[in-house]
Amino acid sequence: MRRARPPETALVFRARPRFAGLLLWGAVFVGGWGPAGAAESCRNAELVRVHDGDTVSLRCDTGLVKLRFADIDAPEYRQPGGRQAREALVALLDGCRLVVETRATDRYGRRIGDILVGDEKVSLRLVSQGWAWCGPRSARTCRSRQDAARDARRGLWQDAAPVPPWRWREQHPYRP
């Protein structure tokens, strides 16, 4: 036969699982689920390398960070317009105070996010200059800047029919 616990002990044991559950959900809500979901920011990043038009390496307080811009897609380096997109990104970042905001990590281990110069997102500047396409889930601001760049025939839009990077990657699979 099972013995009943004294009332004060029973209350403590019943409350612990609820409290633990609240702590777990609080940690997930506030900090994300581990490194892949955690948002981070770096207030004074140093540019280390520009890989292509939408990927850079930066030195932050936490160490070296490889960042892929969220919500845009720039030409691959070997793609027509790729070198110019990279040069445009170098010009936007070189010598500036960089603020980095990340929101996730992709399957290649790159942080996904954006860089702010002043109060403007660098990714939106690239789109405005015509060196990147908006992603499928981009905000209306990005789409309107892309339309303006296309109408003004800036950057990649100087070509009558520029090939988006996702189509170019389909036609030119990566071979290590």
UniProtKB/TrEMBL annotation:
Among PROSITE patterns, the record links this protein to:
TNASE_3
Statement: the UniProt record of this protein carries the keyword Nuclease = yes
Q: Give a single Pfam family match.
A: SNase
Q: Where are the transmembrane segments?
A: none
Span of the signal peptide: none
Listed A to Z, the keywords are: Endonuclease, Hydrolase, Nuclease
Q: Which SMART domains match?
A: SNc
Superkingdom classification of source: Bacteria
Give any GO molecular function from the UniProt entry. Answer: endonuclease activity
This chain's protein is named Micrococcal nuclease
Q: Which organism is it from?
A: Sinimarinibacterium flocculans
